[in-house]
Amino acid sequence: MVSQTYRHGGRQYGKALAAFGAATALAAGAAAPAAAASHDGEAYVALGDSYTSGPGIPQQSGGDCARSSVNYPSLTAKKLHVSSFKDVSCSGATTDDMWRAQGANPPQLNALGKRTTLVTVGIGGNDIGFGGIIGTCAQLSPTDPAGAPCRKQFAAGGTDQLVNRIDAAAPKIAKVLKAVHQRAPHARVALVGYPAIMPDNGVGCFPAVPIAAGDVPYLRDTEKRLDAMLQQQARKAHVRYVDTYRPTVGHDVCKPAAERWIEGAHPENPAAPFHPNAKGEQAMADSVTGAVRRR
């Protein structure tokens, strides 16, 4: 387990990950992209959370923001040959951090301007508290490894709290996209979804990944619902949505280390727990680049 606290989905992610040891003994659209004009001269700004910044993947910079030199914005910028590039993504970022500083990291929207011509945004997971969700599911998994103790807790009383959280995050995403348009009125904007974390077939690998059998499809469906909400908000805001889920199916947390693009509770490749490794960031960059290049 990496020593630094990384947070995809909430301020308590460090505590959630620490609970793993105590809790256990423990693919983008099918159409080929059309030829595109040169992107030389593009002024590209990347906004986002830890799935954008790439915590734990060498080389790291940005202090607590934990940005990797091979995260998907850096790889996209290189592939598009942009004239200028600024990555202000930061681990633990929520939609609120578009407007407020995270430690030494200024409000992310401050990086935008009238000369910005390309913006990618990867945000929303922290707004639903995904890190805390994973931590809770890991803690509960030994109590009923063959069942769905996490789903039982979050859906107690007949109302799924996670569905409500996703619905509540939708207007926040809309507000971010509106602010991006206002601050960078000449920019093309792409909203980037989240990759396939849990096995898409719903079959887990307890105890290697401490998630109970019934909670694997529950978490998979929760992430799909989050991505669907992001896609809907992108459509409403008239920005491009980048699907990174489908291209990463089959490279989830339960795959062998050589085939894995998303690390599990105890990363075997450099990355934060339950985050993309270098191969995962490359796959996300391929999806982003393809989406940006399509006419």
UniProtKB/TrEMBL annotation:
Bridged cysteine pairs (disulfide): 65-90, 137-150, 205-254
Domain of life, per lineage: Bacteria
UniProt keyword annotations, A-Z: Disulfide bond, Hydrolase, Signal
Region described as Disordered: 268-295
SGNH hydrolase-type esterase domain ranges (all copies): 46-283
The keyword Transcription belongs to this UniProt entry's keyword annotation: no
UniProt cross-references to InterPro entries, sorted A to Z: SEST-like, SGNH_hydro, SGNH_hydro_sf
Signal peptide: 1-27
Pfam families referenced in this protein's UniProt entry, alphabetically: Lipase_GDSL_2 (PF13472)
Residues forming the catalytic site: 50 (nucleophile), 275
Keyword Disulfide bond: yes
Protein name, UniProt field: SGNH/GDSL hydrolase family protein
Naturally occurring in which organism (per UniProt): Streptomyces morookaense
